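Lecture 7, part B: from sequences to assemblies.

Below are the input chains for today's worked example.
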Amino acid sequence: MLAPALLVLGGLFLTGLGLSLLRSFRYIPALGLTDPDLGAYAAVLTAPGFLTSLGLSLWIATASTLIASTLALGAALLLRQTFTGRAIISFLFQINLTIPHVVGAVGILYLVSQSGSFARLAHAGGLIGAPSEFPPLTHDPFAIGIILTYVWKEVPFIGLILLASLQSIRPEHEAAARSLGANRWQVFRHVLLPLLMPALAAASALVFAFAFGAYEIPLILGAHAPEALPVAAWRSFTAIDLATRPQAHAMAIVIALIGAVLLALYARVALRKGGRDAV
Amino acid sequence: MTLELHLLTKTYPGAVRPTVRDLSLTVPRGGVTALLGPSGAGKTTVMRMVAGLLAPDTGDIRLDDRSLLPLPPERRGVVMVFQNAPLFPHLTLAENVGFGLRMRGLPSAEIHDRVGAMLERVQLSGLGSRRPHQLSGGQQQRGALARALVLKPRLLLLDEPLSNLDAALREEMRGLIRALQRETGITTLVVTHDQSEAIVLADRVALLLDGRLAQEAEPDEIFARPASVAVARFIGGVNFLPGRCVQGAFECALGRLPLPSDASEGPGTLTIRPEALRLGPGPDARVGQVLERTFLGSQTRLTIVLAGQRLEALVAPDTARHFAPGDPIQVSLPVDALWVIPDAAG
Amino acid sequence: MRSNHWQIIGAALLALALILPMVPLAIWSLAHGWRFPDLLPRAWSLKAWDYALSAPSGVLQSLWITIWIALATTALAALVGVPAGRALGLHDFRGKRLVLLLMIAPALIPAIAIAPGLHGVFLRLGLTGGTGGVILAHLIPTLPYMVLIMAAVFARFDTVHEDQARSLGAAPWQVWRHVTLPAIAPGLLTACLFAFLVSWSQYLLTLAVGSGRVQTLPLLLYSFAAAGRNDVTGAIALIYILPGVLVVALTARQVTGRHPALMAGP
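Predicted structure of the full complex, as structure tokens:
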């Protein structure tokens, strides 16, 4: 029963990676390259832009994941309680889940760019006189707009996973902790948070991987220099000069390696029980 | 329909020993046989093989002299009611009972009529539109039985039919199963680990130990004349005396004990059920000593040492009150309660 | 009472933040020019919508292609993923962790890492530049969600129901149709929704394998945004999010947080 799925994933995913691996060692018979070497990796790692791009993408992923998971934790704890408007937020969370990232990115662009809605509000409030006086939040070196997009998109994602996880936590644990003398903060810190940790870690790993590797969001909101790594990698792959192709493949392999580290972490957290409830 | 199992053997992949070994058994037409045994003895495996959900490694399963093995489960005319046989949760009670008829493509008017009649028979009329979760445990169990019987199967397989019910419901369900079985005359095989359940439900009991048929007989026969020490132990036997049968008497540590006339000669093990021991003065009484007294509720167990042999007696608490540990006690072993298991039987 | 007050304020801010990025898109789609520093357009117009819905813009054509690709991807993912989910959910076997790891890998190893290699493989197979190749490529990010959700669904499925149905006279396909499918239907619906959404949102793999000839909505949206056509971009964005909103509105009850496998792609 597993065979078709293994065939599809193995056939597409692994052969894709495998081909990149071959090419990254500069093995391209069609171009007359038949002696594998590490030249492409050397070129990539010594190129000035690469490490900056890598650093930028790691910054984007780290900042987005930390902010989004913190806010999502708060939102999940808030949504867990019954109050007016709870249903509306849950509904909006689910709606948000369906909105493609590219739409979010354009929405954020129109909201926070120097001529965007916030800049207009600042102008109306007399804070700025011209668009250029508004702080650059898009195409900026700190990738604020990109991070904003991920936070906007991933808070509902992590939040819904945490809510599902919260529902499986028995209320007796909290009651027991309270009766043992823990205050509300201590109950959260020592009971709820540890119980939520596997779900939070798994969701965070998915978010980190996505924020690190997505292409279209930095394409829309990112600066030209430094470029986020996925944008740099794809640009290098589609460059007219075929000689840089091995470098593009080498970048893909570097990205895959970082993904593999995440996969290993995810496996430790989410597949620890190794059994039927792996999801 | 007569069910015959012929030398069935099944070993699960990766298992060291076969779960079922060389099992041969006949369930006579219209009869009820209980497949009794401790958990893990292979009872359910036998059921699943008969139902067609599991293929035996070797052997044959025949219903009225035709092998069932080539037939898929849905064409065997054999219906199995599973333990925890849950009704399908997404269907109403009536849809559940009509499930098999619908699978056979019967017209809905006929399904409706037969389901209605069946529900009435199991006293579930008026509940047909309820979902399983809206029914009590007993109602669900009756529904599961109705779902099988409405198909008028050639052979009915019941897997631990009473195991999930409380005492009162067990009594009710037991009566219903017996009554329905007599009315329909459907040949029935019941799996159970509970000897009292086997006795009340079945005409014959087949005791399965360790994948093998240990004894097959009428219920009282198994109790009175266990075929082996293992059988005797399973049905609650505790008193075993090694010895030898010579000319209608048993020679053992207690001396020569006269036996019923049908005892076979040779080495064997004498057994007597703990409730058959007689305490107090009597013509053949021997004197022993009380070792231990354990109050069990409706009965009291006395552990007695007689000529160096430990024996256990179950007596009414009133009787037991007269005997304290250390007291001498007179014990008789009634001739008609003695049974010798020949050593060849293990 | 006071804590309830703060809850409502917090929730209101959250709701505002969730809706906010969609507001300028909606305004742009109805604006007849909207210059800085105007807070709202001076004139309103439906011309962006007229254009977006007209043949020359290619928006509707893109919409159909995107829907077709997402539906086909979902169907294929279900066909391949449901049996795999069943195997993983019901059975323990040697190498199961490895299989799970491979299934999860595409969710954690970014598409950009496989896009160049996949492009090369598909080029050889003649699969670039067509919807067929794009659908196959979309299977990579969709299958993990399909398989993992179905594994969770099957882990809670008791196969005794299937045996019972079989014994009551149901043929294998009848068991599937009348017992298994109804039991897994809610989970399968959730899995299909996520598979659809993952394909629906896909950008880079479409670009890499479609070679620019398969213009799905996100690609078209980007080209209008890059060209500075903010009004048309707004209209396309709204058209693009509409199906998802509709589906959630219609199935809100099935996809509540109650489902343990709530795991659409981030």
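Note for the exam: Chain C touches chain A through 103 residues (CB under 8 Å). Keep this in mind when comparing with the next example.
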